[in-house]
């Protein structure tokens, strides 16, 4: 087109004032502008890269397809035989409307500093700042709080599922930075197994919940009956704490192909039940303990229990049986007694007892039954039941608490263990996430209580814990405004700290409640390394950067490194090493192990060039692993880690604690709210299981929502009987409510949920109609607005996310549009 | 050229200024200028361009209003920066008016619309500045492209000028008018009398008015 002018200056910047002929009254506008928006470019349109790049995620290892510099799709690798469609949502994390682009500071906080902690938090607008300014603000505030209040005023517990990767482990990176600074208050426990992980050591002398299960080949070969109790592995095994390799699906498929009888106990006819063709029993929620006690009573009274096993491998059966038979409290826990509570007929309960006893039975339990009031009792009672059946330690018998989680039961491969970045700068034995870091640890589900009641002392597992006085909360890789119970109370509690700092990828409900928000990269904008299969360790993959960081996002590693340097800690954080230096260091440590064990692994350069993951195989021992077999075979030489060395059906340790809400043997106690209460204010229980197309709240802000949202809201399953009396039909927007709050959902009427129960999955993004306020309407459907914030008992102080009773009605009038993820279009 | 197409030089200054307004928050000095006599003269000159009188005046009034409410140029700058954050950076996740064509056409950023804008820039030997981390379908980039082409047009021979005008027309029709009206509606929704509502209306009226079909 032959332009006469050459608009570019030597450095490529487009100059503005070069060719002005005559004057323009608008020339002064040039003074109000800034640097040029455009630059000259003689190069042909620089095509972004196109190709395929190997990376991975909680949802699996994949090939990222890149077109013209954009991440367009994640395709599962061949090694993943049961990939999840959730991979389709990954590119949306980068290009969705909710992406955080620049460092942002809440306007009131920017103007007034800390002490702007009021009801504007969560409602305020945000102002962009430069990275230099952001780092300065964070460093200054960390210094101020340390100098004024001490490190005990800094909460760095930061719970959440973050991203996979041995280097970009943002929770450990936060701890690492805070430890350089002198320490912080950490959390203990988690929202997954809060009650179980504390009581299991008392019962079986080990953590149990995160330990390898009897191998799937053994279950398929030997189990004659599998009981799926409050577990939906078809959904939950899509994800893994590290890279998912989906071996659990192979196990369940083999079980299905064999035709093994499966009985499933669940208020909802789940995807697992449909897949396996399982027999479906739907008790009243929160009554699993009573139902199990009814089964135990039947075993005892019909002399079906294994007295020899109980005698040789357990202590406390005498006391437990006295409780069962009514000798302790005057109430025999008969099948009739149980039927009254759990609404499963007494004959069925007796049948189950006989069926369990007659067959080689594997009791597979999920974690819902312990995520409710008195949750400690659930798995304790399950172990008691399994002990009475006497099949613990036999091939295909006993109980398993992790077949539904991270594909437990997939045989453990002969593989080294990749180390990762630590919070303490020391190497860690065993389960890396149990690394002890921090000045003190608070049972994490007491977060609101802690913020609202500094100095209060609570009981916890035989000890006393006194809440610190928190003035700074730093959260990365987590979303407490979705995972914590009683959101309205959390909003109030959240006003207590003077400063809240959050790193996030998108504007989650938690990011919206921060003072300083720093944009973090996704895994796909940085390099990392990770293994696949928490239990199987079957894969190892380089997580190669797919695209350059979007906007001004930076990795948490780089952010914390800058903060540490600004605070004067030199190379204390990065030890002078780059991202790739660290990744190579982790790999080389694993390579050393591999060489020692004669496992075949390439050198790092070769590994990093691979376009597919390394695959490790299990050996014969792993394929035939039976949990507790060694204990069963040699109980004296392989005692359990309990005081008696045996399974404790009566715990003297717990007895000594004298807790009114946690007796010394498995006990049925009515939950603080449940639909069986005589004076229950609300008639419906809400079952809050893990969603099918999310990882908790992760990926709610992606196009995956098109698969499940009903009328734009979180779906609510309701039985036709309950729907009919309320005039609720498919697609209706409904208001679900109790004394703690109200949420909107989209209704789906189905007999796939039993009467008296609503199913609303956890993880929906809290979307308050009035931002920052307490007590308003949540427009999208975050069920934790309605859940009770209470510890399971003084023993574990676990969270009670499944203790929710409520009612529902069709929403009157026009429902306010959802704005949690994007801005609704302008009406009219 | 149609009679609604203002002189190329004027267009260059206007579009460059609008681009800057959409790309960066106003600092304290900018607020002071806009409030003062120099600002009044500049806004009057903007208002003298076809169709822009009402909104140039509205912008001046909005600056004075935010200054009156906040009490100082510095605080007014923070208040407008907060509006900028909400509207154009999507901060806080509510009340946004994302300034990208891809959002309105494809419900995402960095969509095909960004590729098309980038291709248009490249065809004129232009690209988004190296220090700017925004995609090519950002309204600031699109307006800056119109500014640069106008600038070249101002010193071009009539033949070349004609094709530069045609290029601007085509770009406006294909890549700007397809989304800017909806963008402007979103900017206006929560604060129709605000500074950014006035700026968005100025931008929309400039591109629709100046490049109206003959």
Descriptive overview:
The complex is a heterodimer of chains A (about 850) and B (about 210). Chain A is of the alpha/beta class. Helices cover about 25% and strands about 15% of the residues of chain A. Chain A has 26 helices and 31 strands. In chain A, strand 3 and strand 4 form a beta hairpin. In chain A, helix 4 runs parallel beside helix 20 and helix 5 (about 195-205) packs parallel to helix 15 (about 375-390). The longest helix of chain A has 19 residues, at about 130-150. The radius of gyration of chain A is 28 Å and the shape is globular. Chain B is mostly helical. Chain B is globular. The termini of chain B are close together. Chain B has a single domain, classed as TorD-like (Orthogonal Bundle), CATH 1.10.3480.10. The longest helix of chain B has 19 residues, at about 160-175. Chains A and B meet through strand 1, helix 1, helix 2 and strand 6 of A and helix 1, helix 2, helix 3, helix 5 and helix 7 of B.
Offer a few descriptive terms.
heterodimer, A: 828 residues, alpha/beta, Rossmann fold, Dimethylsulfoxide Reductase, domain 2, six-stranded mixed β-sheet, six-stranded mixed β-barrel, 26 helices, disordered N terminus, B: 214 residues, mainly alpha, TorD-like, 11 helices, 1% strand
């Amino acid at each position: 087109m032959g332009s006469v002018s050459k608009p570019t200056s030597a450095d490529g910047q487009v100059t503005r004032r070069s060719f002005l002929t005559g004057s323009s009254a608008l020339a002064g506008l040039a003074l109000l502008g800034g640097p040029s928006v455009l630059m000259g470019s003689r190069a042909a349109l620089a095509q972004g890269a196109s190709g395929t790049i190997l990376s991975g995620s909680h949802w699996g290892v994949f090939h990222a397809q890149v077109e013209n510099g954009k991440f367009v799709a994640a395709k599962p690798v061949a090694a993943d035989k049961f990939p999840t469609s959730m991979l389709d949502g990954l590119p949306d994390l980068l290009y969705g409307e909710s992406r955080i682009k620049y460092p942002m500071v809440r306007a009131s906080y920017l103007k007034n500093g800390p002490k702007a902690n009021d009801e504007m938090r969560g409602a305020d607008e945000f102002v962009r700042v430069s990275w230099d300014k952001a780092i300065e603000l964070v460093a200054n505030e960390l210094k101020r709080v340390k100098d004024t209040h001490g490190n005990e005023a800094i909460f760095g517990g930061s719970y959440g599922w973050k991203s996979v990767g041995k280097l970009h482990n943002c929770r450990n990176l936060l701890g690492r930075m805070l430890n350089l600074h002198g320490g912080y208050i950490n959390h203990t426990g988690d929202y997954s197994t809060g009650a179980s992980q504390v009581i299991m050591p008392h019962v079986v002398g080990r953590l149990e919940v995160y330990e390898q299960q009897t191998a799937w080949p053994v279950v398929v070969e030997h189990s004659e009956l599998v009981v799926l109790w409050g577990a939906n592995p078809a959904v939950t095994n899509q994800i893994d704490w590290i890279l998912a390799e989906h071996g659990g699906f192979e196990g369940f498929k083999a079980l299905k192909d064999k035709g093994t009888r499966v009985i499933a106990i669940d208020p909802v006819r789940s995807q697992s039940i449909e897949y396996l063709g399982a027999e479906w029993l739907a008790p009243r929620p929160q009554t699993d303990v009573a139902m199990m006690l009814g089964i135990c009573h039947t075993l005892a009274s019909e002399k079906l229990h294994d007295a020899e096993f109980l005698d040789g491998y357990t202590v406390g059966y005498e006391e437990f049986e006295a409780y069962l038979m009514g000798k302790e409290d005057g109430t025999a826990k008969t099948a009739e007694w149980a039927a009254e509570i759990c609404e499963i007929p007494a004959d069925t309960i007796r049948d189950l007892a006989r069926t369990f006893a007659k067959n080689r039975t594997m009791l597979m339990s999920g974690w819902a039954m312990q995520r409710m009031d008195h949750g400690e009792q659930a798995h304790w009672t399950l172990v008691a039941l399994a002990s009475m059946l006497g099949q613990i330690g036999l091939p295909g018998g006993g109980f398993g608490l992790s077949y539904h989680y991270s594909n437990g039961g997939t045989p453990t491969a002969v593989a080294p263990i990749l180390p990762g970045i630590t919070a303490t700068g020391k190497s860690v034995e065993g389960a890396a996430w149990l690394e002890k870091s921090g000045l003190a640890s608070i049972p994490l589900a007491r977060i609101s209580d802690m913020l609202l009641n500094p100095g209060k002392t609570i009981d916890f597992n035989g000890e006393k814990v006194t809440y610190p006085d928190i003035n700074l909360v730093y959260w990365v890789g987590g979303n407490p405004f979705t995972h914590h119970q009683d959101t309205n109370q959390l909003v109030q509690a959240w006003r207590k700290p003077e400063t809240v700092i959050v790193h996030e990828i998108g504007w989650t409900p938690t990011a919206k409640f921060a003072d300083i928000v720093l944009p973090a990269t996704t895994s796909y904008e940085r390099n990392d390394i990770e293994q696949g299969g928490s239990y199987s360790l079957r894969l190892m993959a380089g997580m190669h950067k797919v695209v350059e960081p979007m906007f001004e996002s930076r990795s948490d590693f780089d952010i914390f490194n800058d903060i540490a340097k600004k605070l004067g800690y030199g190379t204390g954080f990065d030890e002078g090493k780059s991202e790739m230096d660290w990744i190579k260091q982790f790999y080389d440590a694993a390579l050393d192990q591999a060489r020692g064990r004669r496992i075949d692994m390439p050198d790092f350069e070769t590994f990093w060039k691979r376009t597919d993951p390394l695959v490790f195989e299990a050996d014969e021992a792993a394929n035939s692993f039976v949990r507790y077999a060694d204990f069963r075979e040699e109980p004296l030489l392989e005692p359990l880690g309990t005081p008696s060395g045996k399974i404790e059906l009566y715990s003297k340790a717990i007895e000594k604690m004298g807790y009114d809400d946690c007796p010394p043997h498995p006990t049925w106690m009515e939950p603080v709210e449940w639909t069986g209460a005589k004076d229950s204010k609300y008639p419906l229980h809400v079952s809050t299981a893990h969603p099918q197309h999310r990882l908790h709240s992760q990926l709610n802000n992606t196009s995956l929502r098109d698969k499940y949202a009903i009328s734009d809201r979180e779906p609510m399953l309701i039985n036709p009987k309950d729907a009919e009396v309320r005039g609720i039909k498919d697609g209706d927007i409904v208001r679900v409510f109790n004394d703690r709050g109200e949420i909107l959902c989209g209704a789906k009427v189905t007999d796939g949920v039993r009467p008296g129960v609503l199913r609303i999955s956890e993880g929906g993004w809290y979307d308050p109609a009035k931002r920052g306020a307490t007590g308003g309407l949540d427009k999208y459907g975050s069920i934790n607005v309605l859940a009770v914030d209470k510890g399971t008992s003084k023993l574990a102080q676990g969270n009670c996310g499944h203790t929710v009773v409520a009612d529902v009605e069709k929403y009157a009038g026009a429902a306010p549009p959802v704005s949690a993820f994007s801005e609704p279009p302008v009406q009219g | 050229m149609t009679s609604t197409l203002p002189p190329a030089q004027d267009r260059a200054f206007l579009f460059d200024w609008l681009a800057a307004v959409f790309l960066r928050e106003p600092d304290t000095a900018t607020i002071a200028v806009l409030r003062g006599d120099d600002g009044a003269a500049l806004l009057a000159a903007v208002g003298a361009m076809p169709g822009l009188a009402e909104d140039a005046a509205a912008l001046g009034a909005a600056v004075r209003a935010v200054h009156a409410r906040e009490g100082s140029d510095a605080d007014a700058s923070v208040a407008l920066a907060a509006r900028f954050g909400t509207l154009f950076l999507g901060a806080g996740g509510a009340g946004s008016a994302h300034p990208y064509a891809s959002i309105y056409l494809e419900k995402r950023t960095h969509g095909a619309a960004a590729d098309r804008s980038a291709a248009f820039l490249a065809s004129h030997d232009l690209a988004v500045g190296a220090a700017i981390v925004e995609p090519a379908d950002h309204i600031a980039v699109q307006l800056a492209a119109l500014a640069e082409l106008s600038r070249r047009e101002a010193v071009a021979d009539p033949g070349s000028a004609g094709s530069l005008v045609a290029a601007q027309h085509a770009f406006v029709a294909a890549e700007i008018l397809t989304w800017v009206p909806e963008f402007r509606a979103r900017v206006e929704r929560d604060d129709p009398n605000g500074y950014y509502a006035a700026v968005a209306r100025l931008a929309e009226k400039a591109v629709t008015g100046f490049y109206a079909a003959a």
